[in-house]
Design goal:
heterodimer, A: six-stranded mixed beta sheet, B: mainly alpha, 2 domains, about 0% strand
Chain lengths: ~350, ~290
């Protein structure tokens, strides 16, 4: 168990910069998710931590040891692969014991550890089976067992759930999180699934084109995205440009294309008067028929998609399209004119 | 009531289609059996012909049987020694070609090297070149190196002929191992030696065994190189077999030698089949 630190990390593949000057510190026992679209450098970062790639610039630290030139088999990490990467010719038991054997642990001790891990992941009955005889979910759990049984300094997950069906995915991610908490192992988790990232992480690192866009806990990432990319990537967002007309403390009046809005930038960087800013808010921040909020918007419903608990609305306000959600019981159909209130704290001011 | 009457039409149709496929399969199986079976049957019959009681048209089987042909082959040819030579060369050639093919196949299967396709083609050339052509020119080289008429020369020649099969099959096996599995082993602490012993070798085992069978049968059947490089010092089963052909064509004796050559191969195949799952084998035997 250890802290993990990446400083100024750079990794090229020929002319392509996969990881572009990344700094990241992960506390002991913390669960950090690298989240981003494919090709954003998250997997490269993870594989650099595992030692499959050596960094071109910058350092990888476990605790205060520089790991840059240590080969993967000498690093105390354990990785869960997207493909599970189980050894097909070995039984479940042999798969799980592989890492312990490599560490030259006495057989009696191995037995205790393996039995405990198999019990935790309800694999006890499957010890003699080969991976080919297991379901996807079982294979996933064997892969998990194989990585945690060695009690590594750092646990690495490379999209471990993407081959499971939706229901199982939710179940296993809860298991992973519980297991990691119980063992207190530092974990780095790579995914492109934002729900997974929000549900499982202590902190989320949003990456795009080899750079870190934002680091924060799930709440902050969702409620206060700092860049246009983050706002657009996580959840749904209405993103607009506007000119700051008036600043009063943290409250700014912004002239947006569809009309003026009052933004309270409390906790965010307050823009200067006259500046052009990008800002965003979530569809669910548009409270239907809310007369008390400072910002009042009336729009025409272009399309209403009934989802059961909510209705997804595509609306038009003074010629500009935006998305809203209604949890109102009344049925809304295309063509309706609906008024919304948006709280002044609902907005995020975004960097480029 | 007739059962088919109660069945819905689509089920009857389905049944008919199923029966149709079964018939076709059966047809080809029977053809295959005849294809392989008739020559073996004929070889057995010919090897048992009684020299004093000629087998001629229109008899479907010889009028009487005797072991005279077998006695003749064992008494008047060097078949016993040839058997020994053949079955000494074959295992050595298999082992040597395994040792030489292992690193080659590893690189061809797992590494990105420039000119890999060309190299692959060169490795497989002996497979498509006429054996006699290879033999004629290789014998010249062997003469220069003093390897002609030596046991070592024969082992090397057989190794050369069996290597393309070995490399081909093992390259495919190496290439089919997912990189993730290798990475996982390394991630869990495996060094190079452990990776070879615990991951690569067990995972290429089906291909390896298939390659060995190929190499072994190639060696047992090899005629051209053996004939040019080895005879008259060394005789193998095929060179004796060929001596009963051509101008001195003696079908009865040739049948005896063919059976001697064929039987161990067939037995070996069955033994290996028991050790391996058959789908393993057919998967690895896929050529080009």
């Amino acid at each position: 168990m250890a802290t993990l630190k990446l400083t100024n990390l750079v990794k090229h593949f020929d002319d392509v910069v996969a990881v572009d000057h990344i700094d990241l510190e992960v506390a002991d026992g913390e669960f950090v998710t690298l989240l981003g679209p494919s090709g954003c450098g998250k997997t490269t970062t993870l594989r650099t931590i595992a030692g499959f790639y050596y960094p071109d610039e910058g350092e990888v630290y476990f605790g205060d040891r520089i790991m840059n030139n240590i080969p993967p088999n000498k690093r105390d990490t354990a990785m869960c692969f997207q493909s599970y990467a189980l050894f097909p010719h070995m039984s479940v038991w042999d798969n799980i014991s592989f890492g312990l054997k490599m560490r030259k642990m006495p057989a009696s001790e191995q037995k205790i550890k393996i039995e405990r891990v198999m019990e935790m992941l309800s694999l006890s009955e499957l010890g003699k089976r080969k991976p080919g005889q297991l379901s996807g979910g079982q294979q996933q759990r064997v892969a998990l067992a194989r990585s945690i049984v060695t009690e590594p300094e750092v646990l690495l997950f490379d999209e471990p759930l993407s081959n499971l069906d939706a229901k199982l995915r939710v179940q296993v991610r809860v298991e992973i999180r519980e297991m990691q908490k119980r063992l207190g192992i530092t974990a780095i988790y790579v995914t492109h699934d934002q729900d997974e990232a929000l549900a499982i992480s202590d902190r989320i690192v949003i990456m795009e084109q080899g750079r870190i866009e934002q680091i924060g806990d799930p709440y902050t990432i969702y409620r206060h995205p700092e860049t246009q990319f983050v706002a657009g990537f996580i959840g749904l967002a209405n993103i607009f440009d506007g000119v700051v007309l008036e600043v009063e403390g943290t409250r700014c009046t912004v002239q947006a294309p569809f009309g003026n809005v009052l933004i309270n930038a409390e906790g965010q960087e307050v823009p200067h008067k006259g500046a052009t800013i990008h800002f965003s808010w979530r569809p669910e921040d548009m409270k239907i028929r809310d007369r008390t909020s400072k910002n009042q918007i009336t729009g025409n419903v272009l399309q209403a998609v009934f989802m059961g608990d909510i209705t997804d609305l595509f609306i038009e306000v003074n010629g500009y399209k935006m998305r809203a959600q209604s949890d109102d019981e009344a049925k809304i159909v295309a063509g309706d004119s609906v008024s919304f209130g948006i709280a002044e704290h609902a907005f995020s001011i975004l960097r480029e | 009531m007739d059962k088919t009457m109660a069945m819905p039409l689509y089920l009857i149709k389905k049944r008919r289609i199923k029966r149709f496929y079964l018939m076709i399969t059966l047809f080809f199986v029977i053809i295959q059996l005849l294809w392989v079976g008739i020559p073996i049957f004929m070889a057995i019959m010919w090897s048992l012909v009684n020299p004093d009681d000629a087998w001629s048209y229109p008899n479907l089987i010889p009028p009487s049987f005797s072991l005279e042909q077998w006695r003749y082959v064992f008494n008047y040819t060097n078949i016993a020694r040839a058997l020994k030579t053949s079955y000494s060369i074959a295992p050595l050639a298999v082992i040597l070609s395994f040792l030489l093919s292992l690193p080659t196949s590893y690189v061809l299967g797992r590494k990105d090297i420039p000119g890999k396709k060309v190299f692959m083609l060169v490795v497989l050339l002996p497979m498509i070149m006429p054996g006699m052509v290879v033999a004629l020119f290789l014998s010249r080289v062997f003469n220069l190196m003093g390897l002609s008429q030596t046991f070592l020369g024969l082992v090397l020649a057989h190794t050369l002929m069996s290597m393309p099969y070995m490399i081909r099959v093992m390259t495919t096996s190496f290439a089919s191992i997912p990189q993730d599995v290798i990475d996982a082993a390394e991630n869990l602490g495996a060094g190079t030696f452990v990776k070879i012993k615990d991951i690569f070798l067990p995972m290429i085992r089906p291909g390896l065994i298939a390659g060995m069978i190929f190499a072994f049968t190639t060696s047992i059947e090899e005629f051209n190189l053996t004939f040019i490089i080895g005879t008259p010092t060394f005789e193998t089963i095929p060179t004796i077999l060929y001596s009963f052909m051509g101008y001195n064509f003696i079908r009865t004796n040739a049948s005896v030698v063919s059976l001697l050559m064929m039987t161990p191969n067939i037995i070996m195949l069955f033994i290996v089949e028991r050790f391996l799952k058959s789908d393993y084998l057919s998967a690895s035997l896929g050529k080009m």
